[in-house]
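Tutorial, part two.
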Amino acid sequence: MADDPFDAIPLLALRLLPLVARLGNLSEAARALDVSQPAASKAIVRAEEMCGVALVVRGRRPMVLTAEGRILAEHAERQDELARLTARRLEDCRAQGEGLVRIASFGASASTHILPQLVAAVARRYRKLQIEITENTDQPTLQALHDGRVDFATIVEIDDPDLELLPLKHDHLMALVRTADPLARHRTLDAQALAAVPFIMTKGGSEPLVRAWFARGGHAPVIRHSIQQITSILALVRAGMGVSIIAETAVPETHAGVTVTPLEPSFPRTICLARRVGGFASHAAEIVWRTAAARALVR
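Running the prediction step on this input gives:
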C-alpha cells in the first residue's frame, strides 16, 4: 500500500491551519492548542516544505490561508470529524454494545423458550446491540457455527473440542398420541409400545435422539411419515396417522386432540449455546455470551 501523502506533514500544522483560518492569527491559534508561537511557526514552515507550496499569506493582517492552505485545512477538518465519529462509534460499541450478533437456532425449543428471553435480557442493557436469529435443523445449524457464518448456535449438548458450551435448559423427549388412541391412557410409553404403531419422525432436530432412544430399548420405529414442522406433526397425530416423539419444550402450549406422554425410560437432553473456542468476533458478541453465561444452568 502506498504511503499516505499526509503522513510526513506535522500533525501540529494540520491542527493549526483550521484555527488560523478561523482566528486570523497564528499566535492565537498556537495558544488555543497550548503550544508556543515558535513551535507553531516551525510546524507551518515544515508543512510548506513537505507540500512544496505556501500555506499562509505572510505579511497580511489578519493572517489568511492560501488556496492550498485552505485545501489542507479542509482535509484536516474532515479528519477531525472522522476521528470524532470513530471515537463515538467505539464508545457506542463499548457502552451500548453497538453491533450485530448472529445466532443459529436448531428449532422450536430454542427459538421459543431460550432465545426470546436472552434477546430481551440483552436489549434491557444494550439498546444498540442487534441480534439476528436464523432457524434450521441440527446439522446445518452446527455447520454454520463451524464455518463462522454465525457467532453462536443453540444445539443439543455434544462433545466437540472445537466448541465452548453454555448449558441453558434441560428437557425430555415426549410421546405425542391422539387423545382418542388407547395409548393415550398410559402414564408412560416405552419403545416396544411405540414401535408397534405407525410412527411420524420429526425432521426438526430431534431425530438422532429419537432413534437413539428406540435403539436403547432394542426397537426401531415404523416410520410412515417424516415431518419437519411441529404443527404438521400435531395435525397428523390428531388425524390418527401415527404417533410421534418430540422434545418437551417444542410442544405448543395448546395441542387439542393430542396427548403428551412421558417416555419410559426418560430421555433427557441439555440445550446449550455454543461458540467456537478462542476470542470473540466483536465486543457485541462478548456481551451476548456474558449475558447468556449469567443465565446458564449450574452443572
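The chain has a mean pLDDT of 92. In part three we will examine how such features are distributed along the chain.
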